[in-house]
Please model this.
Amino acid sequence: MSRSRGAWKERYSSEAALIADAERCWNKFVLPKKAEREANARAAEAFVENAREKRKEQKRSNAITATPFVFQDPSTLPRRDNLYGGHFIRRYVSSTVGGGGGGKSSIEVADMLGMVSANPPLRGWYFNLEDPIDEIKRRVTAAAMHHGVDPEVLNANLFVDSGRDQSLVVVTQQGRETKIVEPVVKALIAEMKYKGIDVLIVDPFVSTHEVEENDNNKIQQVANQFTRVANEANASVE
Model:
C-alpha cells in the first residue's frame, strides 16, 4: 500500500496532470458507456411505446376478432332457459306464422294465459298493435273464462296494451334510408326491466316497422331490434 500511495508521482509530473488523465479516461471509457446505456434505455422505451400504439391501432382496425373455443365439461354448460312449450325461450325471438284470419292472435292469447298462470307464473306483456283496447280485453277475458284462469293471476302477472294508444314502431323508412327509432327501443327495454317482464308478445310483426317486407336486409334490421330487446331485457320476445 505504501508503494501505491506514491506511485502516481513516478508517472505524473503533478497532481494536476493526474487529474487531467483521470478526466481523459472518464471521458473516453465511462461517459460513452453511460451515454450508450441511456441511448439503449431510450430505444427500449420507444420500442415499447411503439408496440403499444400498434396494439391500439390493431384493436381499432380489427372490428371482428376470432375467439378460440375452449372445451368444457358438458354438464357445466347452461341449458336453454325454456319458458313455455319449447317455443318461448329467454333471450330469443320466436314467431308464429300463418295466413290472415287463421287464428294466430287467438293462439298468442292462449299461450300468454298459459304462461302467466303457470307454476311458477311468468310475467307477460301482450301488445296488440291492430285492435282497440276494448277488443283486446274482450278476447283475453273470454279466453280466461274458457280455460278457467283465476282473475287474480291475470291481475298480478299480465300486461295488455294496444297500438292505437301507444306506438311500437322500431324502424322507420325515410326515403331510401331506414332509421332505428332508438327512443322506442330503449323505452321498451327499460319498461320490461322495470316491470320484470319475462315474455313479450307483439301482434302483428308488420305493425312494428315501416319498411318493405320483401326486402330481407331491412326486415333483418327490424328483427335485430327485437333480438336486442330479448337480450337486454333477458326475456322471450314473440
